[in-house]
Design goal:
With 369 residues, this protein is of the alpha+beta class. Helix content is 28%, strand content 27%. A hairpin with a 2-residue loop joins β13 and β14. It starts with a strand and ends in a 10-residue tail after the last helix. The chain binds adenosine monophosphate. Adenosine monophosphate (AMP) binds next to β14.
Length: 369
């Protein structure tokens, strides 16, 4: 009986465990927070990331280690790697935790990105703006997520505004990309080297938080599909990656620019639970175990709508034919991801109609697009 140890016990970990139970796997989780969602479905060790005694107890209880949270300190992952297989390898965390490392890797592999520059001081910020131009996006290099830790600079006067929460952190300035839309590619590579790619998802964000994903992304031709798989494949190979990797992309005038990557299962892949032959959660587990990967082919036209801050009446959601409700057991708080609804239909038109029905139940303005 194999027990998987997961660092982080949020909803991603919870869904990994739910997928793994079907294959006879066991799970233990490690998190700093006692009431983490995965702790409702598997044993949870609570401790800080540098609590060596708690980490040793967690390690004793599992055979191999993975993560569902990319801000696990690299030192913690490396410590566990001394005694256990850890997948993806800590190097993937190291790259993904720093936007500068991430974009530097993309560029070194010939993958397009927005122009960028590291910024440490006000003088460097002015030099970076001179080089990149305005508008531009100033972001913290580390720990930014869901649009936190970033600011758009539009006019020269915006440089005079105090940095506020961004001050004192290493920063990156990126050229503002007037993208046509946001896409993501989910890729998976097994311990054996086998790889697979899900169809591109189209993602709609509001206030920096993912609201809706649709896959296969409408209107994507063979060339874009191949370009996305090619760039993701380069990252998988460069990092000798094992597990699911997500890369967030901007589509801009027919080209793909890489924005960031997540060395884990990803919110835009939740629709693979009912929308794909094999979900991202199942394939992540198959990959880290070195088992054959399952087909990533879509089983229909799928959409995922995040439930953020509040949850609708479950009965109203479930009355919608083809709607699958996923709740994470979290208490409501503004801006918090509490669950999602997946819709899977046989045609794009039927999916549009199902989204319209869901819009009457879920207060999500981007559904009206
Ligand atoms: P991130 O934390 O990098 O994923 O950024 C959150 C969201 O901000 C993205 O999903 C985009 O909608 C937007 N954004 C980030 N970087 C840029 C950029 N360089 N140009 C335009 N929009 C951006």
């Amino acid at each position: 009986m194999t027990t998987i140890g997961v660092l982080g016990a949020g909803q991603l970990g919870r869904m990994l465990a739910l997928a793994g139970y079907e294959m006879g796997l066991r799970f233990v989780f490690y998190d700093e927070t006692p009431d983490a969602p995965a702790g409702h479905v598997a044993p949870l060790t609570v401790g800080r990331w540098d609590d060596h005694a708690a980490l040793a107890a967690f390690a004793d209880a599992c055979d191999l280690v993975t993560y569902e949270f990319e801000n696990v300190p690299v030192a913690t992952a490396e410590r566990l790697a001394a005694t256990h297989p850890v997948a993806p390898a800590p190097r993937a965390l190291e790259v993904a935790q720093d936007r500068l490392n991430e974009k530097t890797l993309f560029r070194s592999l010939g993958i397009g990105t927005a122009p960028f520059a590291a910024v440490g001081t006000t003088a460097e910020l002015r030099r970076a703006v001179d080089a990149i131009g305005l508008p531009a996006v100033l972001k913290t290099r580390r720990m930014g997520y869901d649009g936190k830790g970033q600011r758009v600079l539009r006019r020269p006067e915006d440089l005079d505004v105090p940095l506020g929460p961004l001050g004192g952190h290493p920063l990156i300035l990126e050229g503002f990309v007037p993208f046509d839309r946001e896409l993501s590619i989910l890729a998976v590579r097994s311990r054996t080297g086998e790889t697979a790619y899900w169809p591109l998802a189209e993602n709609v964000h509001r206030d920096g938080i993912l609201r809706v994903s649709v896959a296969p992304a409408p209107g994507v031709g063979d060339a874009l599909t191949a370009a996305a798989a090619d760039l993701a494949g380069k990252v998988l190979t460069a990092l000798d990656y094992v597990g699911v990797l997500a890369i967030e992309l901007f589509e801009h005038r027919g080209d793909l620019l890489a924005n960031e990557m997540a060395p884990r299962v990803h919110n835009s892949g939740h629709l693979t639970i009912e929308g794909s032959t094999t979900s991202q959660f199942e394939n992540h587990l198959r990959a880290i175990l070195g088992w054959p990967l399952g087909s990533t082919a879509p089983v229909g036209f799928a959409a995922m709508v995040n439930l953020i801050g509040e949850t609708p009446d479950p009965r109203a959601v479930l009355e919608i034919e083809g709607a699958h409700l996923h709740l994470y057991g979290k208490s409501p708080r503004p801006g918090r991801k509490l669950g999602h609804v997946n819709l899977v239909e046989r045609s794009p038109e039927a999916l549009t109609a199902a989204i319209a029905r869901l819009a009457s139940v879920v207060a999500e303005p981007t559904l009206a697009r």
